[in-house]
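Figure 2 data, in text form.
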Amino acid sequence: MIRPRTVMIPTVALALALAAPSVAQAQTMAYGDVSGGEAVSGGPGADAAGSDDSQLETFSPKKARRGGRDSRGGGKRVVITPYIEANQIVDAELSPGSDVVTYSQVAAGVDATVAGRNNAASVSVRYEYHYGWGKKAGNGDSISGIASGYTTIAPGLTLQAAGLATRASDRGGGAGLGGNYGRDNATVDVYAIQGGPSLVTRAGNLDVSANYRAGFTKIDTHNRDRSFAGGIAPDTFDKSVSQIADVEAGFAPGTVLPVGVGAAGSFYQEDVNNLDQRVRDMQARGIVTVPVGRTVQATGAIGYEDVEVSSRDAVRDAAGNPVVGRNGRYVTDKASPRRIAYDTDGLIWDVGVMWRPSPRTSLTAHVGRRYGAMNYNGTFTWSPDNRRTVSLAVYDTISAFGGNLSRLLDNLPDDFVAVRNPVTGNIGGCVASLEGNNCLAGALGAIRSSTFRSRGIAASYSMRFGRLDAGVGLGYDNRKYIAAPGTVLAIADGLTDENYWLTAYLSGQIDPRSGWGLNAYASLVKSDLDLGNVTNVGASAAYYRNLTRHLRAHAALSIDGTMASDDLLLDDFWNASALVGMRYSF
């Protein structure tokens, strides 16, 4: 049975796409003087497109990218492809057991790209139901999808939305990309949606921008048993609501002064359902931008920030033990006082450089003091031509699982093709796009409920050449947990989870009627807590052939594995699946 909340999450962005038929393809910024542009004059962290993501850690609005035709010369384009499928699947557990089961699957979905001058969106949504043959093969359904887009409400005013629904493996406590088809209850469903308006305007020489984003994230654990091994840990993330608002105003260099001057303020809050955790961050800062050359400018900012992380404790029984509810998570004691886990306020500063030697290359690099310690972040994008893109991001943020995922969703491009597992249909770690910031795998690390400081790096490369599409994403994410003393989560305070991840795809055509695709992923989760080291790997291959204009036959193979370190009482898990089926596209 489809839960109402499950269906609504991806369809919100789908509605946005279908409601905006006059939209533009991949959004690119018209190249101009690096010291000017629509954004406020070079706030700390402002990249070549004008977004300010060094100080606003949860979202980096794409405010200055809106509008303008696709740089590849495309005009208005609307492609909407609904489809239905019928498949037969054989699923084999190779280790530690040796069972083989079969499933019949029916699926329906839609892939859509809407592109024009003032709006853009890409959407891929799929619902499937499978029927298991035999006692060990159960019945079930799932919905998966990814979407990102925006629409222009008025000149300078846009509305953006993005969403994700996918099923991930929870073996070893991390939300990995693998997992077998139907029998494995060590999976979680991840749902997330975020969106809001952005305003960019000018009053004389004064540039003004304002943004608001709201995000909701939910993890469904399928009501697994309460035991940790193979089940749900009591501190598994449940759901959260995150909000951010920011405003900037400033003068570009050469308008009122030889240097640019401005001011900015922001407010961020994330409310996590688990133990009523709350992250709150308020800041204000002044900004100076100094042109160094035609393509380089330096920035400096100084201001004040107040960050607080707090939570309540769990309900305790007569023996003082925390109570676990029917959903397998700790029960929040609403009557307990709010306890401070992290509290810092005072001076923050930032210095950086922005370099944009051409319309296809941009670099930002920043160093400063924030969260009571040194802070480093930056971005790099390079598109040597219309067929290749390289992107790199270094980040340092404080949030919970939901806010971290919302930040990455906000960075998704508006022109992409979803990369799916050809057997399960699940969304992969990256989307196929010639725009940067196209990977979500880094957010699908450990799914603990605790708030954390996340520091890491993510890189991706995408290529489209003739009939060949390829891409690879890789990164490192370090999460240092923040928990209040005297609470059930205090044991995690100061401990870390590290996630090294890689995901890749390659696809092409054999002839005008047939094609193939390869996907692969790998991750290594290293934990100071109770997980030890867990490695997840997997690969899949698919082939299709169009029989008629609307009907195609396809086949696919996949293999997934989870290997735990020797100190964990977990068997290595390997699973292989094969699929044959037919798709009818309308």
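Caption note: The two ends are 25 Å apart (CA to CA).
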